[in-house]
């Protein structure tokens, strides 16, 4: 009898452990090419599981995801799980040549990671070349079973992926720009869940449609998957309430417009309380740079929201903001606050171990010998952080070099501040030849485990002033303050919000301005930091953090998976 009781107790303990640790959520991703018709022409694109956008992954906090990726496309591929902490699973993070070598055509790799301390809207996407234009999908994390949202349960949840469309092969488009040293071609359309909408040629039947029940409240999970464009989003005659950003809950914020940068997510509650009818949802570009200096795709994508039982074919269109309405964008971004006491809320660390002041912006690079360069001064467009223009390795991933202590792949001397102090936002210096050329390098900043980092992003006025959405892999951060002009280390800290700052993984550094973030480096490995405008990433607007092991098994980077691809 005692033995039976012991066995039963063990079984119950195992069951409790299984429930506590969550479920196994397993998917297979087949990456291949698919021919679709958009804007009057057939186009071959790279997708996952014959779907554009790709499949939505649903999981709960505490679950373990296992994603088997088989690459049947003609290109090298990796998948990044944007916003996932990857606690002790940095090998699954995905940026090519940073945490792994790409998966070659015909080969496979299995990503495995646990979702710890996170719930909300994230997403996954290719993290090599411009393939994420069509290789992407939503990653929805629900609360653990038995727990609820910190707001009334919506009648329905709907992922809304905002993207862009190119009439051409995106890999070729990117390479054409890089070969000439100039910006690649602009997109030809924006999309809502892969469809451009009825304002574009040949697109009357390619308009996303959402049927809703009058009087009900829906949760729209907005994701900006566009390569290079921040977007305004509106719904005709309806207000929205922001309840989360980047899978972090916010104090509810009522607004009639959402501004969302590439890489960011925004969850909004919408009560469909208008007269039975049909209403457009629409997205247009927020183009922060001077349009005479930086071109942009000035078009509008829209979908239709139809109240059930309504049959009219004349939807109402919302008035859309001017593309250069920076005051409106700034109002939205700065009015968002965190949700202290809500699920997974982490207070702001008050003691800082590492202070960094990092300039971000576009630069120039010298034209290589025997090359044709079409940028100004017969040079190539480039970009940098603290005047270091990042070069991605090609023979070994940075994480493998870190784990195996291999030298020559990267150096540990990324600077805490720019080499020269100047008036960073003075447009009179935008073509100063003594400042705008940045050396190429592959540098990291080494951090002790569990150290607290305060990072001031400072935009520069080189070539063109614009908003830069900066993403940090592996960590959320508190946004303590943001503003325009040059950061003032004496007066601007007085504006820091230590009570309820917004929590993000991607921050749009204001055009001609600055943003201050703070985070705790509690996860060992190599963590990529980069601008989420894909035009700027290959130019070098990136760096990486190297977080050391913490000295315990729970804070030590494990060895790589056996099937990790080789370069």
From TrEMBL:
GO molecular function: copper ion binding; hydroquinone:oxygen oxidoreductase activity
Keyword terms: Apoplast, Copper, Glycoprotein, Lignin degradation, Metal-binding, Oxidoreductase, Repeat, Secreted, Signal
Main location: secreted
Free-text comment on the cofactor: Binds 4 Cu cations per monomer.
BP GO terms, sorted: lignin catabolic process
The organism's place on the tree of life at top rank: Eukaryota
TM helices/strands, residue ranges: none
Residue ranges constituting the Plastocyanin-like domain according to the UniProt record: 31-145, 157-309, 414-549
Signal peptide: 1-22
Location relative to the cell: Secreted, Extracellular space, Apoplast
CC annotations in GO: apoplast
Top EC group: oxidoreductase
Cofactor requirement: Cu cation
UniProt-listed PROSITE patterns: MULTICOPPER_OXIDASE1, MULTICOPPER_OXIDASE2
Family classification: Belongs to the multicopper oxidase family.
Function text: Lignin degradation and detoxification of lignin-derived products.
Name the UniProt record assigns to this protein: Laccase
Originating organism: Pyrus ussuriensis x Pyrus communis
